[in-house]
Every structure is written in structure tokens, then in C-alpha cells.
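REVIEWER CHECKLIST
Item 1: Sequence provided? yes
Item 2: Single chain? yes
Item 3: Sequence as submitted:
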Amino acid sequence: MSNPRSRRRVLAGSALLGAASIAGCVPQNGRAESETSSSARSEEPDPTEPQPDRSRSLEVQDLEDLESFVDETMQTSLEEHDVVGASVAVVHDDEIVLAEGYGNASVDGPAVDAAETRFVTGSVSKPIVWTAVMQLIEADRIDPDEAITTYLKSVSIPETEWEPITMAHLATHTAGFEQRFGGTWIRDPDDLRSLPTVLIEEQPELVRPPGTVASYSNYGTALAAQVVADVTGTPFEEYVEENIFEPAGMDTSTFEQPVPEESDTSVATGYTTLGGTPQETRELSLELAPAGSMAATATEMGAFVRAHLGGGVVDGERILEEETVEEMHERWFTHHEELDGIAFGLLERSRGTASDSGDEDDSSGGQSRLLEHNGQIPGSFHSRLLLAPEHDLGLFLAYNTDSAAGASADFVDAFLEEYLPLEESSGAAALEPDGRPEHADELEGSYRGVNVAESEYAKFWSVAQAGSIDVSVADDGALVTDLGDETRWIEREPLLFQEEDGDELLAFGEDGDEIRYLFLGFHAFERRSWHESTALHAGVAGATTLGMLTGAVGWPLARGWRWLRDDGEDGGIPPEQRVSMEAPASGERHASSDDEPRSTSSLNPEPESAGQLDAIGPPGAKTTPTGTAGSSSSSERTLEKGTLTDPRRWGRWTAGTTIACLFGFVLGTVVLLLLYPYTLLSDPPLAFTALFVFPLLGVAGTAISACYAIIAWRDGYWSRRSRIHYTLVVCAAAGFCWLLYYWNMVRLPV
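Item 4: Structure as written out by the authors:
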């Protein structure tokens, strides 16, 4: 059976959605050859039906006890996950067989009503966009394999050396865009820019050829919505209202922000459990609105599900032709023919396993193909849309608390186990490794999720969200993936592996002669060089932080200790009468050996021997020799004292200021993340923009400190131990600056 817990274990920390493939897996039109052909679609078997020698459908169970089952399961999941309110709609045989609300629309507000309480659906808005696009494909107003620049009038897409981006690329998230946080969530709806403006000003970089690797993109969906607007000459929201919402009876559904008040409906309030208990969160607005701003009731979304399960018709009103619905549900992209792929804007999920024998009477397996999409609003709403077209079964869930992702997964798993149960296995032999896999040495390494902001300062956060997987080969030949927990995989064929104790599949993809990608369902991970390893960066961050702390904390502590010690030793001798170590005049060397420790502070050094100058006092203060009056060497040292090239006076001050800038940037970022947990990266306040001055100062300070280190070694300042320590502190600062540069945080504050 498919093991959802296994998938969550391996994909923990990855982006909510993501996909990948390699060049050559799909034709240039972006559609998987194994499932469809653009030249002869009508002659092919319906891909929503089980294919011979591949799978057998599971059977839907009797739904008579549906209400009691949903009541019990939903109430349990709400309590376990501290969810304030939820709504559910179940569709079967062209009717909504259940639509019910649970909990409250707000903590002190009314109970959730499935027909009256609207929830913001997040990315479940996207299937609405792709349904609108399919209407225009059906009307021959858009060719899914034609460059979108053919249809775009309000947004310019730069030409590249690669093939043009098509609508098929956008629908399968294979346009090649990097992740981008700009243009997503903002705090004040009055600051919303028009969709064309956002698409122009927040255009992400193209980081890979279109049609080769899928990486989930809000921008791509919003761009598709703008194509709809440009082709029809109607704003996207108006087009959807007239051509989807009205005929489907979705009377209160809207993309408008903030959600407008309706006399017969209410809008659920969003909550976060970040503080332990549900706390109301500030409403967010999405600038790429078509990608996730829709609000609707569960009953209205049930009508949308009916349209997709009923051949495009709802209560006699046609939204799509039946053939168009079937084409939309086909697989348009896949990483590997054995893995789940992507339909036109919907994600595949296989339930059960294929029968290896191909015998329809064999009860050892069974498989159903599901289509789904999740949605998440940061710090509040969560939603889920699930279709089982071959069973005429559909499900919509909506929650108003950010902890509901776990509740949703638990409910869907329980629902499928109850009403689409897996067939009992006939006792197939457990998988065992048969020697080392082919290309074993080439498979090992670290792979990172592809859905990354390569050029934005949000790179660090996007990498943390995308996740990474370490791959190794065990002594017995099993492939081992490590993402907190280890999972063992057995090779089924070259570059394709099955989970040792489950049905999950994993594949690798080649780029030329190199094994570059790891595929897990529609998620993709890209091999990274050793210097990009998460473990290495964590180690460098720890070591450099510790190194800088030895200076930032050690130098002041050492100075304080000397002050206390000297006060006790000299019996209260005034500071102006104390002596200190001075640099030798040009060409001179200190009489003491480098191996004899001298003072490690340039701010208040202790006396090393008689005959040295008194340099205590503010910078620029006149110094007098304590040795022989009128000594020429003393005069030369006095003249040198206080110059900008004197590392004793300026070296540690410069290094300390550098460390303060670097630590200040990190500390300031953490504070701002706490103050703006959901919008710091997408709608940064002025304070965050100004904060980027500190890394620039840190880089400049590190360079100057390095010069002081060179001077100290050249002219023999301080003791050898002090010079070594100072050099290590400067190296630590340089390493930390490299980390900030790698993560795109050394940038002009604009």
C-alpha cells in the first residue's frame, strides 16, 4: 500500500508542492509521451481509467454511514490539532452527498456553516485558473503548446537561448522560473498593485530551460491568469465570475481582497497556533491574486467538484465539454513513467499498487489515480481539493487555522481508508537488495529541493522550505535516504527504487552523462556540490560564530581583567603614569621574543618593560617617553602612534565593529521575523531594507581587519599568540561574510 507517512517523512521540510523532471523525459510541448499525444488524443484510451497491465481500480465502499464517519473523524482531528473551525463537502454520483461545518468561524463567533461560511482557499484557487484556461483552449483561443508571448499584451517575457514558455509549461510548473517571494503576501490591501504591474516588477529569473524541470510557481499561475485577461479583454476576476462562478452556482465565491461582506454569508477568521493556542492573525492579501486569493464556501466548492466529475456540467449548466475535462485530467508531465505526475494544473497521487502480473483476477494489488491540490495561507487558512475521477468521488476541505495541514492529512488518509480501501495483499515476498545498485557511486551525495529563490535574499528561507536529502548506499546494497529519519529503498530497475517496507517509488534523472536529479512523486531534488551542503554550511556558521565570539567577548573580558589586576598591583597609580607596549620604530625589533606573551589588548595594554611610551589615554593624546628623555626612537614611536595603520589602536576596534555589524544583521533579522512572521520576505518593512547596510559594512570591515593582520605580522606587533588569535577572528569574519554572500544577503539596501 502507499504509505503517506513515508512520504511525509522523506519530504519533511520540503515545499508544499514541487515537481521535477529532466531534459528528454517529455516532448517539447511539455506533455508526457507515455500518456498523451497531441496529434491523436481522441484515439487514445482515457487516461483517467485504469490502464491494462498497469493498474486495477479499487472500489468505493457504501457511503451510508458517511455523516457519522465524517462527524467523528473531523471532531477528533480538530481537537488533536487545535483547529478552530472547518468545513467539508463530499461529492459522489453527481451530487453533494455531504456538506457540513465543524467548530467556529471565529473563536467567539458563529458555528461554521458549509453553505454560508466562506474560507480563503489559498492555492486551491489555482484549479479555477486552469479551468478558465481550458475554456479558452477548448474555444481555440489559446494553443497550450504555443509561446505565451503570442497572447500576452500587458507583460513582456524576455527572450532566452531556450525554447519559449508555453501554457503547458505554466500549467505543469515547468516554465523554469525560480522561486520568488516578492509579489506574494502584503499586510495592507490598499497597497495592492495591479496584476500586470506585479508580473512586470516581480518577474523571477529563468534558471532552467522550460519543459525540463517542474518547480512550483505562484508567478506562473498568475501569468496564466493574465493571459486569460489579455486574450478575452476582460480582467481575470470578471472573466471567472461570468464563465465559472455564475454557471456553477458559486454565487458568493470571489477573488476580491479583502473578501467583501455578503448578506447571506460570513467570512471565517484566520488563526495561528504559533504561540501554542489559536491566536487571531492579521488578514493578508496576495498580490499574485489568481494564485491563491479565492474565498468560497464548501458547498460552492462542491459544485466545482461536481463540474469536474460530471463531464463539465453542473445542474444543466456547462462549464467545459466532457472531452475537455478528460484532457485536463490527463497526465501532462511526468518525471518518470512509474512516478506520479502532473495533470493540467492538478497533481497526481497514486493510491495502491499495480498488479505485477496484469491478471485482472489477481487480488495481490490494485491502484487508483487521484488528482489533488492543497492550499495554505501563511498563519491561517488551509484547504484541500481531492478528485477520484474513475470513482466519481470528490472531496473538499477548508480550515481556518494554520495547524490544519496535519488535520487535513489525517482526515484524507482516514477517508480513503474507509471509502476507497486498499485490497489486502496476497503475501508478496518482502523486497530485498540484490547487490549494489547500478551507478551506486554516482547516486550518492546531497540533493536539494529545486524550488529555490536563486537570486533573492530569501534564498536561505526557500532552501530551508525546499528541504534536502542525503543519499548513500548501505553495505547490503540498499539505497538509504536521510532527512532526519533514514529510509531504505530497493532497486527495481536502473535509477528506479521502491521503498523497502512500502510502495513509495523514487527515481533518479540524468542531465547528459551526470546523475543530477532525485525524484519523489512530483517533488524534485537537485544534486549540489560539496560546498553547497547544508551540513557544511551549518558547520561553517557554527565555527565562524564561535571564532568571532572569542574576539567580541574575549577582548573586552581580557581588558576588564587587566584593569582589575593592574588596579590591585599598582596601588592606584594614576593612568597617565602607567606605561604600555609600543611598536618599534621603523627597522627595530622588540627585545622580547615572540614566544614571550605580551599584552593581547591594544585598547589598554599592560606595561612590558621600562623605557616605553605612555600611550594610555584618548586617541591623539600627547605621549611622553618614560625612558630616556629625548630618545629618538621614542620620538619616532610617538609619531607612529595613532596613525590609521597602527593595528594596536585600530585593529581590534575595527574587527569588533565588524563583528557587531554581522551579528547585528542576524539579530535584527530574527527580531523582524518575530514582528513580521508572514510578510517579512514578501513585503519587507523599511527597517529590513536598511538592515542590509550591515553586511556591507561587515565585508568592508573584514577587509580592513585583514590588512591590520598583515601589518601586525609584518612589523611584529603583539605577541605571536595574539597575532594568531587576531588572524583567526578575521578569518572567522571572512567565512561568515562568505555565508551571507552565498545566501544573497550581501546586497545594496534598495
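Item 5: Key structural point noted by reviewer: Confidence is low (pLDDT under 50) at residues 1-56, 355-365, 568-639.
Item 6: Recommendation: ____
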